[in-house]
Specification:
Structural class: alpha/beta
Helix content: 10-25%
Shape: elongated
CATH class of the largest domain: Alpha Beta
CATH topology of the largest domain: TIM Barrel
Number of helices: 9
Largest sheet: 9 strands, mixed
Strand content: 15-25%
Length: 417
């Protein structure tokens, strides 16, 4: 877990990212996975250019799900053919943009999506491959966010593929090259990971028989858990490689020679522990017998997506990041709020906080993934935090995005399928 202090002179609020920690996390994940396999970084976890560049140099590919993420990955130096373009629905103009840039691999979630991609690839005179995302019949029990076995925008139901295998075969200009099987998210149990990957591997074997094909790629998803806004370290999975390797030997023989190529994807495991949010105390008061601490950061800077259940409900560990200006009152539980003009701007109702007073600098660890980019940054128009990147204690970059509303050109408009 990165513990770098906030460099002197940096304006708060500020996110601090340590790319040395990113490299360490990538190495840990590679050690935990069976080999040969490829790791795709889920750009949605944190699209900062320095993190993308660090992971590309370390050996990761990139999983993207929008034109913004396609552009960010390519700007960071990723080869277009090292991108997997996912997402349950894609605008035709966005696919066209990706094709023009040289993206060659797409995850598809329906028959319509296959036909859409085939038509656009033919029009662009490109040949691409797709991975069929499958919504398995069974949800694998365990901690985390379950993503199969329920009605979902993600993937084709397994039963639909088995009932009409010809409908999910290759098309002109589009090769049905493999499967995309993502069953759960934010899982910190090795047993639960083994269970979901085993289920996915056997589903891949079953579908290869049904479609009378041999997969070139099987993406087993990810879901590797990490602490979010709380103290803690990355979970370790010491037996995962051997246990999953044995399963793959049974279900997908030939994988050790790359047929099929086995891929995984991860966002939070690679980025969570690299980042911390530094923010100052604006006010401390008593209200109806409870200590209330107001910070200059709220759900606009951290935790905005918690309400969508994409992230754990935020209850951050807030710790002093420097010497307090003056110790006032005892440590203990407090309501932690941000500066937004809504009672919904609440991090926690009873978080354990040290004694703080206005002006003190505090820190929330393990927010390198799903931090700033997963927050309500435009709501109420507060300035965005500074983003500082360090490597080995040395500042690598410092920047801050601004929120501006630019009018669309008169030619903008229309609809797109």
């Amino acid at each position: 877990m990165a513990r770098d202090p906030l460099p002197a002179g940096v304006e708060t609020p500020a996110y601090l990212y340590d790319v040395a920690e990113v490299r360490r996390c990538y190495a840990l994940l590679r050690q935990a996975l069976p080999q040969p396999s490829t790791v795709y970084y889920a750009v949605k976890a944190n699209p900062h250019p320095d993190l993308l560049t660090t992971l590309r140099v370390a050996g990761a590919n990139a999983e993207v799900c929008s034109v913004g993420e396609v552009d960010a990955a390519i700007a960071a130096g990723f080869r277009p053919d090292h991108l997997l373009y996912t997402g349950p629905g894609k605008r035709s103009r966005d696919i066209q943009h990706a094709l023009e840039l040289g993206v060659t691999e797409f995850s598809v979630d329906s028959r319509h999506a296959i036909d859409q991609l085939a038509g656009l690839a033919a029009a662009a005179d490109r040949r691409v491959r797709c991975l069929l995302r499958v919504n398995d019949d069974l949800a694998v029990p365990g901690p985390g966010l379950v993503m199969t076995g329920v009605s979902s925008q993600f993937g084709v139901d397994l039963g639909a593929v088995l009932a009409d295998p010809a409908g999910f075969a290759s098309r002109p200009n589009v090769e049905m090259a493999g499967l995309h099987l993502y069953m759960g998210s934010n899982i910190d149990s090795e047993d639960a990971l083994v269970a979901q990957f085993t289920q996915a591997a056997h589903t891949a074997h079953r579908l290869a028989d049904a479609l009378r094909t041999r997969w070139r790629v099987v993406n087993l998803g990810g879901g590797f858990g990490a602490p979010f806004a709380r103290s803690g370290v990355l979970p370790r999975f010491p037996g995962l490689a051997d246990r999953l390797g044995a399963t793959l030997d049974e279900a997908l023989p030939g994988w050790r020679d790359g047929t099929p190529a086995i891929t995984f994807e991860s966002g939070r495991y690679l980025a969570a522990t690299c980042g911390a949010l530094f923010t100052r105390v604006l006010d401390v008061k008593e209200s109806h017998g409870k200590r209330v601490v107001v910070l200059e950061s709220g759900v606009n800077h951290l935790g905005g997506m918690s309400g969508l259940r994409r992230l754990p409900q935020i209850a951050p560990d807030v710790e002093l990041a420097g010497t307090p200006s003056e110790t006032v009152g005892p440590a203990g539980p407090a309501q932690v709020s941000g500066p937004l003009c809504t009672p919904l701007d609440l991090w926690a109702r009873g978080a354990e906080l040290p004694a703080v007073r206005p002006g003190d600098l505090v820190r929330v660890a393990n927010v390198g993934a799903y931090g700033l980019s997963a927050s309500l940054v435009t709501f109420l128009g507060h300035p965005l935090p500074t983003e500082v990147v360090v490597d080995g204690g040395q500042i690598r970059s410092s920047s801050r995005l601004t929120l501006t509303r630019c009018p669309l050109p008169a030619s903008h408009g229309g609809t797109d399928g």
